[in-house]
Amino acid sequence: MTSAFVRRTAVVTGAAGFIGSHLCERLLDLGAEVIGVDNLLTGRLDNLSGLRSAGGFRFQSDDVTQPFSVVGPVDFVFHLASPASPLDYARHPLATLKVGALGTLNALELAEAKHARFLLASTSEVYGDPLVHPQPEQYWGNVNPVGPRSVYDEAKRYAEALTSCFQRSGSIRTRIVRIFNTYGPRMRADDGRAVPAFIQQALAGEPITVAGDGSQTRSLCFVADTVEGLLAAATAEHTDPVNLGNPHEITMLQLAEQIRALAGSSSAITFVPLPADDPKRRCPDIASARAHLRWEPTTHLRDGLRRTLDWAEQHFPRQAAATGRSAS
């Protein structure tokens, strides 16, 4: 798999985002030329600070909901552009729908024009609040099409339909991955997702706010593992959607307690109302990824959370100082 990217050119939309920036970094490590595209709606140039001066990387400030092009040949198009946290797509509902529809179409047409392989970063949110557990790729989901989360859920479901249409037409080779909850360094502390929110609160000594009674579950995959899954999917011959995630399930209360302990924090745990349409259980069936991509996550949750905490302490020194822990 690694040799497939040597002296190849990859376009990454959403390059300045959390997962996108890690993907760009890994592609460069593997010898690829990388063109990162982002309009910085939710991404940050700081995520690319170590890459923008590196050889082989070029940043292009474009809104992919508008037709865009890149100079020169392209071998892979990784389409990651989209607000991805509930807080972000609540703030930018129309932009979320547009990037799932128009952005995906424009990225597909770029891949078609360049005769490049295309990978869509879809999401476990296409399953909605699932009635089947764990969720296999054959499950069609339980999505509220008019609920507060629908702008993201339905945008990604449409993006999958559009990508599948291009695949069936034979015009380009496409891949679809459904990313389950991913965490790690470069998550924004204010993006509304559980891991960065709990870490920020624990480091600041503030109450850790758990939604509902904390019994709802998630399955958390460290970002480096998710990136390896994206690369494996891009080079595999498997064309059906495939889940990328960690099959180890944890409740939100357990997650809060583990982060508090790792941070050495004395924060109290408090409970707040559960958001509308919040999935009660979320866990991937990754049999397909194991069989077709020869991929599964290797980072233990404790190790990944510790690495994420260390990064957060370095980037949020005031919060780190509040707990008495020294930054690593």
Provide structural commentary.
- This protein is an alpha/beta fold and 328 residues long.
- The strands form four sheets. It has a seven-stranded parallel β-sheet with strand order 3-2-1-4-5-6-11, with helices on both faces. The chain has a two-stranded parallel sheet with strand order 7-10.
- The model is unreliable at 319-328 (pLDDT under 50).
- It has helices at 18-29, 86-91, 93-114, 150-169, 194-204, 223-235, 252-263, 287-293, 301-315, 317-323; strands at residues 9-13, 33-38, 57-61, 76-79, 117-123, 174-179, 182-183, 208-211, 217-218, 221-222, 242-244, 250-251, 269-272.
Task: Give the gist of this structure.
With 328 residues, this protein is an alpha/beta fold. Helices cover 38% and strands 16% of the residues. It has helices at residues 18-29, 86-91, 93-114, 150-169, 194-204, 223-235, 252-263, 287-293, 301-315, 317-323; strands at 9-13, 33-38, 57-61, 76-79, 117-123, 174-179, 182-183, 208-211, 217-218, 221-222, 242-244, 250-251, 269-272.
* Average pLDDT over all residues: 93
**Strand arrangement across the biggest beta sheet:** 3-2-1-4-5-6-11
- In N-to-C order, the SSE pattern is EHEEEHHEHEEHEEEHEEHEHHH
- Rg, alpha carbons: 19 Å
Gross geometry: globular
**Are there runs of 5+ residues with pLDDT below 50, and where?**
319-328
Q: What's the helix count?
A: 10
List keywords for this structure.
328 residues, alpha/beta, 7-stranded parallel beta sheet, two-stranded parallel ribbon, 13 strands, disordered C terminus
